[in-house]
Amino acid sequence: MKQTIRDLQPAGRTAFLRVDFNVPIHQGTVTDDSRVVASLPTISELSSAGARVLCASHLGRPEGRRRQELSLETVAAVLGHHLGRKVLFIPESHGPQVAKWVAAMEDGDVALLENLRFAPGEEKNDPDFARQLAAPASIYVNDAFGAAHRAHASTVAITRFLSPAVAGLLLEREVTSLSRLLGRVDRPYIVVLGGAKISGKIDLMESLMERVDAILVGGAMSHTLLRAQGIETGNSRVEEDRLDMARHILEKAAARGVDLVLPVDHLAAPAVDSGTVETTSGAAIPADLMACDVGPRTVDLFSRRIQEAATILWNGPMGIFENPRFAAGTRSIGEAIAASSGFSVVGGGDSAAAVRQFHLGDGFSHISTGGGACLEYLAGRSLPGLAALAEKDS
Ligand code: ADP
Ligand code: MG
To answer: How many CB atoms lie within 10 A of CB 272?
Structure first.
């Protein structure tokens, strides 16, 4: 990441700025605007330097068709509110109409294009579509870390048509913070993993195994590991078809001397929303109950390990934190990490949402805005969006 917007002289030029405004929208209202907020430094910087800023993003999965409920128009209003200035919404992402709108912009103006994925060319990384996206602009800025793991027209193909092509401030901060975890870190280096499934995170676990001192596992993914050890899991969520994968992870951790720490108790109930919540007496989960959160002894055990750590990565909630009955484990572990003076990073959409929900953000060194992109980066994979910028640099 050699070139950023700090290397630009953008006054009077039109910047195509790829942002990640893939925000949750419920009944026409943006319910979490943290991705918009995260992009403000780059937008403000370009605008005050006198650029005409043409923001572009995808939203949801319209699969190449216009779907009005996935229009970015609402997001333009949210962005305008945060910037304290009018944001022009352009109801197309490409084509001759866009050029007309852009011609009416003045230096410092900010506009948002319509959802890039309304056009089939976006996800196909189609060079023709990329050329049309690039047409009204003369410089390219990528600030969409959350989309950097996708080779799409607005993240990869477009870099062929615009020079310079540089990183925005958010992208730069993501790479700077996350790359620290791939280099030489202060030890102990502890990873806290949780969430729904092992299957989506196997690459991450394998790669972390090479680097970390301990992996603390909670959430539903811990049930699959417990079952692989022959421990009863009752009605809890288990990936039956991943037991071999789980065994392989347990063996690999043992072989490498990585401490794989599993829950020693759980909060369990007959159903997520009904029936009495019980604390199990041990790691085993009684028949007819489902574990929905880690128990108090597990919280103590994990918290002590977290206190000793100098570097902490957290991905995946410890339980079904969306339900107040099962939020305690995720909240307590989040608090323990936030209280640490070590270098702490949280990545993953739901985990980052939990950190915000419990107002723990100030205690973290870095909150990644990327879900899949963050996990792939930390698994050591090359991200196409970053690679495309790097190729322009060299
Ligand atoms: P992230 O987005 O942070 O990577 P995941 O998407 O992997 O996290 O997992 C988040 C989901 O896992 C949450 O919706 C949460 O409710 C669910 N989850 C966590 N623990 C359990 C559990 N014990 N049983 C069922 N679902 C769980
Ligand atoms: Mg998730």
So the answer is: 14
Contact at 8 Å (CB) between 306 and 341? no
Determine if ligand 1 sits within 6 Å of the CB of residue 234.
no
219 C-beta closer than 6 A to ligand 1: yes
Instruction: Tell me the best of 350, 356, 369 to mutate to test the pocket of ligand 1, counting ligand atoms within 8 Å of each CB and taking the most.
Output: 350
- Amino acid identity for residue 235 in this structure: N
At residue 239, what are phi and psi to the nearest 5 degrees? -90, 90
Q: What is the CATH number of domain 180-378?
A: 3.40.50.1260
8 CA distance to ligand 2 middle (Å): 35
35 is catalytic: yes
Q: Evaluate whether 5-172 and 180-378 have a shared fold.
A: yes
106-146 pLDDT, tens digit each: 999 999 999 999 999 999 999 999 999 999 999 999 999 99
Cα–Cα distances (Å) from 218 to 192, 203, 205, in that order, read 8, 18, 14
Closest atom, ligand 1, to C-alpha of 222:
23
Class of domain 5-172: alpha beta
pTM: 0.93
Domain boundaries, the chain: 5-172, 180-378
Stretch (H or E) spanning 53 = strand 52-56
- Report the alpha-carbon distance of residue 68 to residue 73 in Å, rounded: 9
* Interval between CA 367 and ligand 2 midpoint (Å): 14
Nearest 10 degrees: Cα torsion 360, 373, 349, 233: -110
Is residue 189 within 8 A of residue 215, CB to CB? The reply is: no
Pocket-testing residue among 277, 289, 318, 320, ligand 1, by greatest number of atoms within 8 A of Cβ: 320
Evaluate whether 35 touches 370 at the Cβ level (below 8 Å): no
Ligand 1 lined by 329 (C-beta under 6 Å): no
Cα–Cα distance measured from residue 364 to residue 315, given in angstroms and rounded to the nearest whole number: 13
pLDDT digits (tens, 9 = 90+) for 26-55: 999 999 999 999 999 999 999 999 999 999
3-state DSSP of 321-387: CCCHHHCHHHHHHHHHHHHCCCEEEECCHHHHHHHHHCCCHHHCCEECCCCHHHHHHHCCCCCHHHH
The string of pLDDT tens digits covering residues 224-245 is 999 999 999 999 999 999 999 9
